[in-house]
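2 proteins. here.
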Amino acid sequence: MAHHYSGPDFSFPHGDPRVDHTDLFAFPAPEASSRSVFVIDVHPSFGINPPGPTTKEPFAPEAVYDLRIDTDGDGVADVAFRTRFSQTDGALSATVRRAEGSDAAGMGDDGDVVVQNAPVSTGADAQVTENGQYRFFAGWRSDPFFFDAEGVLNDFQLTGNDFFADKDVCSIALELPNDALGASGSVALWHRILVPGDNGGGAWIQADRGAKPSQSVFFSPGDEKAAYLAGEPASDLRFVGSFAHVLEHSGGYSPDDAKRVAETLLPDVLSYDPAQPAAYPDNGRRLTDDVASHFLTLFTNGKVTDTGVRAHSDLLDEFPYVGPPHGSYDS
C-alpha cells in the first residue's frame, strides 16, 4: 500500500503516524521545463493496526523530513532538502534547508535556508509560500494513492474498491529549479524521516524511508523490517535474498528469476531525469501513475496485472497539485 503503514504488522513506524512515509512523487513542473516538483506524503489519516482516525496534528515538530538526492549513483545523498516544523501559539510553520556534500550525507538538519516560516495548511485552501526560486506547501491533502487494499490483503480477491478514495494524508510539496538538484542529468531520489534518539544528546534515528511504492510493506520480513527502514540505498543489496524469498512465495518465481526481479527493486531509489517526461517506473512518478498495478504484476509474477481502480479526480491543475482534504483538521 505504497509505503502506508510501514511499521510492524501494518502499524506506524515508532507508533507515530506523523513519521510514516507514504509516497514520493517527482515530475517536471507543467509550466516550466527548467523546474521540478517533488511531493512527499506522510501521515495517513486512517490507521489499519489499530484501525481508526489518527491525530489531527499533521507533522512532528521534533522530526526531520529529508528529501535525499544522489547525483553519482553510489546510493549516498549528495544533496538534501530538509523540512522541519515549529509550533507557535498552536500554529505550525515550516523551514526548509538545502545541504550538500558531507552535510547532505549525514544525519541531522543542517543546511542553508531556502524557505522559512511557511504556514502549514489544515483546511481546504492550500497556503503556498514562495521564496526566490522556491515554491513550498505543507499540510493536509486528499491522498492521491489509489489501491484496492481490502482485496489485495484478502489473498488478491479484488473488489474494485479504492480504500484510499476518501482518505487524507499530509503533503510536503517543493518546486525548485533543476540546477538545485546538483546534477544536469538523472539523479536518484528517496525520502527519510529522522526522529531524536532515545538517549538524547543530539543523536538521530531513522524512523522510515522510501522511494519505490510498497516495498517495505510487502517485502521486508519482520526480522529485517527495522534494518530496512533504518537503512540507506548504499547498503540495500543485502536485502536481495529476502526480497527474492518473498517473490518465490508470492509469485511462484524460480529462485534465479526471483533474484533477478529483486535486483531490479533494489536499491530503493526513484530514478529521475528532469529533462525527460515523468512516468513510473522509468522516470520519476506522477500523481496519476498506476504504481499499484505495476507493483502487483511483479509481486504476483503476472497473475494480477490490474487493481481495477484509477487515479483520483480531485487533483489540482496548479501547485501543490494534490487535492483538498476530505476531512476537517482545524483545531
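next one coming up
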Amino acid sequence: MRRPTLNDVAAEAGVSAKSVSRVINGASNISPELRRRVETAVEKLNYVPNTLARALKMGIGDTVGVVIDSISDPFFAALTSAVEAAAVEAGLGTVFGSTGLDPAREREQVERMIMRQVKALILAPVRRSHDYLRRYAAQMPIVLVDRTVEGQLFDTVRVDDRGDARAAVDHLLAVGHRRIAFVGADDRYSTICDRLLGYRDALAAHGIEAAAELCCPQPVTDADSVALLAGLRTFPEPATALFAATSRDAIRLVFAMHTTDTTDLALISFGDFPLSRSLRPPVTVVDHDPVLIGRTAMQRVLDGLGGEHGPPRDIVVPTRLVPRGSGEIRPSEVST
C-alpha cells in the first residue's frame, strides 16, 4: 500500500503543501481553521512525515519517550525510574513528558516526542480515544501503562483496579466495618472509576447500600483533607473506615488524621508510599507496584524493537494486600 505523501494531505485539506508543512512543523502563525483542516487530513490519511518515517526505518535515535500524568506523583515517579533503569540496561535513553491530565497537552507531548524520533513510546493515557496514535503504531512500539483506552489498539500494562479495590474493601468488611468511605473519587481517571466500582461491588455483595455521603472527592490540599475527615466523623452514622483510592489521597488522609490526633479510623491505601510503614499504626496497602509495571512495559518495548509482532496484549500484573495495622482496626475501637 502506498504511503500517503505531503501532497496527498494538501489535496485532502484543500491547501498548499507549504501550508501543510508549516502546520506539521509547529509554526505559530497558523489560523485555527487551517490547522483543523490539516490535522483532520493527517488523521484521515494516517500520514507520517517523511523525515520521521525515514528516521524510524533507519533506526536513528536511541531514546524511548515516556508520557505520564506528573513526575511528582509517587506512583509515576517510581514507574518512570523503573523504565529508565531498564532502558539504560538495554543501551537506550529516555525522555519524559507530563500531561497534567489534559488531553490536548497529552497529544502535544506525544507528537513532540514522535517528531524527536523516539524509538518507542510508553504512555499513561488521559482520554479513552487514541485514534490519533494509529498512524504511529505500525512504525514503533507503543505501550500504555496504568490505564486502558477504547478498543484494544496497543499493548497495555495495568492492574485489576476493580477486583483489587473490591478485595481491599472486602478486607475492611471482614473486620466488621459497614460505614466505609471511599476517598478520592475523580472521574478523570478510568482507574479510579474502576476502583469505585470495586468498592461498590464489595458493599453490594454484603447487602450494604453505598451511601452517597461516603463517596468523597479527592482532597486537593491538606486543608481539604482535614475538612473531609471532620465531615465523615460528624454524620449520625460516622465512617469507621477509609479506603483511599490512591497513595496521594492516603498521604492527605494521614496528614489529616495526625493533625487532628485521629488514630482510631481504619485505613487502606490503594498504592504504597514512602514512610507508610513508619507511621503508627503502619498503613495497610494494596501493593500496586509501579516498578513491576514499568519493567513490564519496557520489556514489551524491547520485544517490539526486537521484531516481535502480534496482536496487542492486555497484561494485568498482580497486586497483593499488605496488612500492616491500619486496615485491621475494628469498628468497636472507633470513637463516635
